[in-house]
Amino acid sequence: MATFVPRKVFPTLNSLPRSYFLGHHKAGLDKMKTMLSHTDLVIECRDYRTPLTSRNPLFEENLAGRERLIVYTKQDLGSAGQNKDKTRERLIQDFQRPSTVLFSDYKDKSSIRKILEFARTHARAADSLTGSRMMVVGMPNVGKSSLLNALRGVGVHKGKAAHTGAQPGVTRKVGTTVKIIEGDESGEGVYLMDTPGVFIPYVPNAEAMLKLALCGSVKDAIIAPTTLADYLLYHLNLYDPFVYGAYESPTNDVVQVLDALARNTGRLQKGGTPDLEASALWLIQRWRNGHLGRFVLDEVTPTTLEAEKRTNESVGLSLSQGRKMMKELRKQKARQKHLDTH
Question: pLDDT tens digits, residue range 137-168?
């Protein structure tokens, strides 16, 4: 039997959409800017599984002037607690200086307490009798609302204050502030404001869009589920090609995996035809929930971090630049469609 060899690269898909910047994203960002003068600390959430790709430069551009705490959420879905995970975390912390970086799993109270302690220390330094106001921001579906609920639960022992969901767009407006730390003789306490997720105006490359979609930052209907499942299969094979062994032997053929999965789980259409799209969505959700291995999609090394820094300095896509690129992309697609029909 031949030795299985996983794909080393994933094919470039230039036809993929390169933006998911919606109207309520811009409205939310505009509202955040107006609230900045009343905000003591910005807590920026990024997805642990995409530590580089889930960074949105719009926050640094529009919310400058306030101290920033960067929290990498969903650590439990990307880290196995091994030495390589700890090394990656140290690299990220060094790269983000002078901003403080913390890693979080909203179900892990110890990680939530670290964030609360940082917020408490920051609030005491601000020394405000009316309490400290903080804002949580991040890309869509990165875990902002889950983090807020966890901070509220551990900090003041209250129930959920923000709605959460598996798809992006649950929080569409800047919310009211909720207390996460009780007051004492020095002030009224610490309050945190939930905000809608804000997408990047223009994604620099197709693979970055695949990563964001796989982690749930765009709705599943935007990119074909079978395409996302194929990208997931590419990463699963690099991580451990036997992780889906209950359904199929190691392969680079996503249709083969989805066909076997559909027959094993009963996802069949009329006549017994495998429902590949339903199987793809199920496979993706299994990974999102941590049932198909825990690993990151971004490569984090000194070399890739330096490249990220250069990209940020040279590109720095603003909202207007992103719109121009999207407009040009639409024109190109329209021209191509015209040529194809004539």
Answer: 999 999 998 999 999 999 999 877 766 655 55
Whether the CB-CB separation of 201 and 21 falls below 8 Å is answered with: yes
Distance CA 76, CA 90 (A): 17
Phi and psi dihedrals of 183, rounded to 5?
-80, 165
Look up residue 10 and give its two tokens. Answer: 């994933």
Q: What is the mean pLDDT of residues 207-235?
A: 95
Render pLDDT for 87-139 as a digit per residue (tens, 0 to 9): 999 999 999 999 999 999 999 999 999 999 999 999 988 777 667 999 999 99
Q: How far apart are the first and last CA of the chain?
A: 50
Contact, 298 vs 175, CB < 8 A? no
- The β-bridge partners of 189 are 182
Which residues, listed in sequence order, are joined to residue 178 by a DSSP beta bridge? 192
Strand pairing partners for 68?
Answer: 42
Asked if 162 contacts 175 with a C-beta cutoff of 8 angstroms, the reply is yes
Sheet holding 41-47, edge to edge: 100-103, 67-73, 41-47, 132-138, 187-193, 177-184
At 78, is the secondary structure helix, strand, or coil? helix
Pairing relationship of beta strands 187-193 and 100-103 according to DSSP bridges? unpaired
The answer to whether 42 touches 134, Cβ cutoff 8 Å, is yes
Alpha helices in 247-318 (DSSP H): 254-265, 276-288, 302-314
Least confident range of 19-33, 304-318, 323-337: 323-337
Q: For 212-234, give one letter per residue: b (16+ CB within 10 A) or e.
A: bbbbbbbebebbebbbbbbbbbb
Round to whole Å and give the CA distance between 198 and 24.
8
